[in-house]
Amino acid sequence: MKKLLFALLLAFTLHIPALATSDIPDTTEPKIPVNFEISNTDGYREIYGPGEQIAIHVAGKSPELLTIDPKSGFHVQAMIVSEKQSNPYASVNGVFDDEKHAWLITFTVPNEASNSYHLVISLYCAQAQGPCVQTYGQAAQIQKILPLQVR
After folding, report:
1. Is 28 left (phi over 0), alpha (psi -120 to 50) or beta?
2. Tens digits of residue pLDDT in 81-133
3. Angle at CA 108, nearest 5°, toward 113 and 68?
4. What's this model's pTM, rounded to 2 decimal places?
5. Which of 86, 89, 84, 85 is nearest to 54 (CA)?
6. Beta bridge partner(s), residue 92
């Protein structure tokens, strides 16, 4: 049944007529090379105890003189992933701290001791309008992958 549904959806998608011209901007590709970056992960350690709390401040920078903050349209999300599972162990949205000028991400470390975890931090353009999207495009995103050992 799933194969039949997939085949029908694929056939339908392939037969949709394309528009010759469109006023809808293409926001799937960055406007310029994405060269903003995650510049600091204050509080990060590679090794944590089972069930321990993680609190990391994530800051970014951009050579285009954009302020990397929510007012410019940026956002941070993070997740803990395991090489043994297809779904993330945990996923959180960062909370911007105006004093530190960084997003605070907090997690509880998995209880299972393992060396196969990673912390994946994403900095991206989150608003449909704003300086981030105007400069880089709506699809602009970078990731930083950090090892996470639970012992």
Report:
1. alpha
2. 998 888 899 999 999 999 999 999 999 999 988 878 999 999 999 988 899 99
3. 120
4. 0.78
5. 89
6. 78
Residues 103 and 72 sit within 8 Å (Cβ to Cβ): no
- Quickly list DSSP for 65-114: ----SGGGTEEEEEEEEETT-SS-SEEEE-EEETTTTEEEEEEE--SS-E
Tokens 């900095």 label which residue?
123
End-to-end, the C-alpha distance of the chain in Å comes to 45
Amino acid at 101: H
Q: Can you tell me the distance from the alpha carbon of 31 to that of 136, in angstroms, rounded to the nearest whole number?
A: 5
Q: What is the CA radius of gyration of the chain?
A: 19
Find where tokens 């495009």 sit: 137
Using alpha carbons, select from 92, 72, 88, 70 the residue that is nearest to residue 80. 88
Provide the residue type at 126 as one letter: A
Q: What span, in angstroms and rounded, lies between the C-alpha atoms of 1 and 7?
A: 10
- Rounded to whole angstroms, the Cα distance separating 77 from 36 reads 16
**Closest-CA residue to 79 (of 142, 146, 127):** 146
Dist. CA 135–CA 141, nearest whole Å: 12
